[in-house]
Amino acid sequence: MDRSAIASLVSPYRRRPWMKEQGAAAAASGQVGLKGIVAGGITGGIEICITYPTEYVKTQLQLDEKGAGKKYNGIFDCVKKTVGERGFFGLYRGLSVLVYGSIPKSAARFGAFEFLKSKAVDSRGQLSNSGKLLCGLGAGVCEAIVAVTPMETIKVKFINDQRSANPKFKGFAHGVGQIIKAEGISGIYKGLTPTILKQGSNQAIRFFVLESLKDLYKGDDHTKPVPKLVVGAFGAIAGAASVFGNTPLDVVKTRMQGLEASKYKNTAHCALEILKNEGPAAFYKGTVPRLGRVCLDVAITFMIYDSFMDLFNKVWV
């Protein structure tokens, strides 16, 4: 019996080569996922400090109902009245909620995407179109459950509280304590279903568009670097696509998380009530400010994230 035959009997990796391959793959995917978590967390904190005022205006307009309760006549009226009543920093009301939430949200999103991508790429390191959609969907569902639902619920309740004549929330800790005291832990998980639908479709659209545009830019050279400004432009396009694709879900989610959410039995009932009382156009309330925020948000996010991942890939081996 020759040496190669003996080695094939003695070495467990000769007999079960997938053990060695899977071990290496697991280590690599775990490392990439961890880099994504750290880079995503840093990115989320920086991005929200830049874009929050547009999120504030969007939420105010989505909460604004027709009739006697209507408070604002549009984007500029909302900004003017907010600054007039509370000063410029009134546009940052509720920022602390998103700062606390944006870091784990972005970390969960990018960590999940990088992990799933490492499992789904082909032998050339490329994702198929279905792979792009599914990895993005998985990233969106992960962030919805881990961070977005409680963060968004608290944010909407804080902004909604400001609209009342006598705001009752004195700060982040006090507000969260009051919500949990009145409604229990489930009080910060209102609108979980529409949030999962929104975030899942959001990230599926965004990552699909971004990754597809990157592939188009690279052509046949998969190692060709994409300049950060080009990444930003691709991110803005991806953000716009997601806005037009799922703003109705965003409106329903916002209503389900407001202080008057108790009047809705479930997600479907909320959607039907909006359609019956306010018409189809109500599902696109706040589209313009959301479009501005999301395009800027996604462009900045992907530029910052790519920059940190490039850095980590050089120094974090």
From TrEMBL:
InterPro entries: MCP_dom_sf (IPR023395), MCP_transmembrane (IPR018108), TXTP-like (IPR049563). Its main location: mitochondrion. It comes from the Eukaryota. Pfam families: Mito_carr. Gene3D superfamilies: Mitochondrial carrier domain. It is found in: Mitochondrion membrane. Solcar repeats lie at residues 31-119, 130-216, 226-311. GO terms for cellular component: mitochondrial membrane. One of its GO terms (molecular function) is citrate secondary active transmembrane transporter activity. It is a multi-pass membrane protein. GO terms for biological process: mitochondrial citrate transmembrane transport. Keywords: Membrane, Mitochondrion, Repeat, Transmembrane, Transmembrane helix, Transport. PANTHER family: SUCCINATE/FUMARATE MITOCHONDRIAL TRANSPORTER-RELATED, TRICARBOXYLATE TRANSPORT PROTEIN, MITOCHONDRIAL. Belongs to the mitochondrial carrier (TC 2.A.29) family. This is Citrate transport protein. The gene is Dyak\GE10110.
